[in-house]
Amino acid sequence: MKQYFAFQWHITDACDQRCKHCYIFSEDTRKEPEAMSWRQMQDTFYNCLDFCRVYDRLPYFYLTGGDPILHPDFWKLLALIKEHDIPFTILGNPFHLTDAVCQKLREYGCQKYQLSIDGMRQTHDWFRKPGSFDCTLEKIACIKKAGMRAVIMTTVSGTNISEVPDIIGTVVAAGADIFAFARYCPTSEEKDTGMTPQQYRQLLDTCYKKFQAYEAAGCTTYFNKKDHLWTLYEYERGIFQIPEGAGEKVIYGGCNCGNCHMTILPTGEIYACRRVQNSKVGNVFEDRLADVWICQMETYRDYSRFEKCSRCELLRFCRGCPAVASGQNGNFYAADPQCWKEVEIGATV
């Protein structure tokens, strides 16, 4: 069976917000937003299809920005995607969603719409803008009514870590279909997530117990354990076990960078991962994606270079978040700042 390949495609930087932890405007909130032209979007789309033909993959698009719905040719792009019967998810804002817009999105083939909640009302609105918290919760029902799945994503840092358990309760009550969280990747001058490894492990423990309680009560929200440190947590608890006969040279899980994912920006720049600030590997307007994949992307597939993970038995399954490590010190292969596992210095796998 063919596997999907995920293209995180930023078609525009245009956005109604200037979030304090946004990587797009982290250096300059006054920058003029970039956006692809319609011709550039068409060329990019067919470049992605060419990639999938070469590597026998099925394309899956995560359309985002900025807020992708603000692009003047947004609906034309959706029509092109629908013409080729390709599934996609929207990562956007809640402000322009109405029943009619959501219904139209579903008719074009949108499977999921992802929104963000980064704290309870006061914290979230401080991160994003006043009124955003209530608007986001309100639009969950709008998304679901149209037949799409409503996804809530939280970016966790030292600022909001104590609020995550309450966020979970809030999004469950609002009927979200999927909930996940990932860590803040340091950008600009701020190079610390504000969380110690022990604090982050405690968060996972608290959330795990909440997830278990909700599932036992018949909760329909799916809790997506997105952060790869969940693998370490479940390994320590005996929930995850290394499969017998697992190949020593096979990567089974962990970070998808260099494996089944790439990011395309409005400028055409191709990134191994959007959350890795220095991971540009080419430009979709100039380079064939299929060539970039076997050349420049190799830089992110040298698993022996992981300074800590290469000595850990979970190398093939975890590797934490290299984007967080890169954001802190510029080194993709450095140790994950929130990984609490002690690894013997002389150990090899």
TrEMBL record:
The keyword Iron applies. Signal peptide: none annotated. Gene3D superfamilies: Aldolase class I. Residues 1-213 form the Radical SAM core domain. InterPro entries: 4Fe4S-binding_SPASM_dom, Aldolase_TIM, Elp3/MiaA/NifB-like_rSAM, PqqE-like, Radical_SAM_PqqE_MftC-like, rSAM, rSAM_ACGX, rSAM_sf. One of its GO terms (molecular function) is catalytic activity. Keywords: 4Fe-4S, Iron, Iron-sulfur, Metal-binding, S-adenosyl-L-methionine. The keyword Cytoplasm does not apply. Pfam families: Radical_SAM (PF04055), SPASM (PF13186). SMART domains: Elp3. It comes from the Bacteria. Its cofactor is [4Fe-4S] cluster. This is Radical SAM/SPASM domain protein, ACGX system. It comes from Neobittarella massiliensis (ex Bilen et al. 2018).
